[in-house]
Amino acid sequence: MRLLESQPEKKTRWAGGTIFSIVLHVGLIFLAVFATARAGVNKAKKDRAEKVNFVAVKKEPPPPEAKKEPPPPKKEAPKPKAPKVKPPPVQAPRLAKEAPVAPPKGFQVVPPVVNIPTALPSIDLSKAVTNESDFSGKGVAGGTAKGVVGGTGKAGDTGKEAGIKHDAPYMEFQVEKAVRHIGGATPEYPANLRDMGVKGEVLAQFVVGENGRYESGTLKILSSSNPAFSDAVKRALPGMRFSAAQIGGQKVKQLVQMPFQFNIKT
């Protein structure tokens, strides 16, 4: 049996193994370097991703809320119009015609001429212009000769009745006989004014009734020089006596204006 040396073969195997080992190590080193470089790149990317700068931004105020307008009112359906019913005609009661009243029995008063005519008016001499009996001066001023005693009409009225008798007092020019003071109490002179020598006058207005007495509550002081004189007249009036006014012989009330003089006798 022939034995051969194997050393040269061993040397060949060792050289191949060395190359393989070198290649293997180079590959491992390359992979390690590649892996390290890859990890560095990923870390750099990771660092860049983690570095974020935050900037504070001012928040704008929210826009004002728009006011909600109330919904428009619902339109009601128009109500059907009720048919117009004409009311039955109402007949006004017929009033009796007022009968004209007669003027008072008296005389006419010629009014003063205010406007003097520049041309003479035409005059019919065949007709009477005035009735001379209307200017007799008898009776009530403003009346006529054909008037009625106690008449309340005006001159020219054609009525024949005196008219409704009213309770209002007559004026002096409306009566035939005016009121006259015939006696009774007299106003007393205030002592303090008499001692000081003070004179005065009072103009009083009051009603004298059909009985010739002052009617209570009708006194009105028209003018007075001193309140003390007015008080003296007020106290004396209830005790004064008058002759009542007359129209056609009938006593009537009359509104009287009477002055009272307060003089000191020397």
Overview of the structural elements:
The protein is of the alpha+beta class. Among the domains are: 133-166, no CATH class; 172-262, TolA/TonB C-terminal domain (2-Layer Sandwich). 22% of the residues lie in helices and 16% in strands. The protein contains three helices and nine strands; from the N terminus they run αβββαββαββββ. It has helices at residues 7-50, 191-195, 227-236; strands spanning 106-107, 140-141, 180-184, 200-208, 220-224, 240-243, 245-247, 250-252, 254-262. β7 and β8 (250-252) form a beta hairpin. The chain is elongated, with a radius of gyration of 69 Å. The chain starts with 6 loop residues before the first helix and ends with a strand. Residues 1-6, 8-13 and 92-97 have low confidence and may be disordered.
What portion of residues is helical? 10-25%
Distance between the termini: 215 Å
Q: Which CATH top level class of the domain at 172-262 fits? A: Alpha Beta
What's the main sheet like?
3 strands, antiparallel
Provide the succession of SSEs.
HEEEHEEHEEEE
CATH homologous superfamily designation of the domain at 172-262: TonB
Offer a concise description of the structure.
With 266 residues, this protein is an alpha+beta fold. The protein has helices at residues 7-50, 191-195, 227-236; strands at 106-107, 140-141, 180-184, 200-208, 220-224, 240-243, 245-247, 250-252, 254-262.
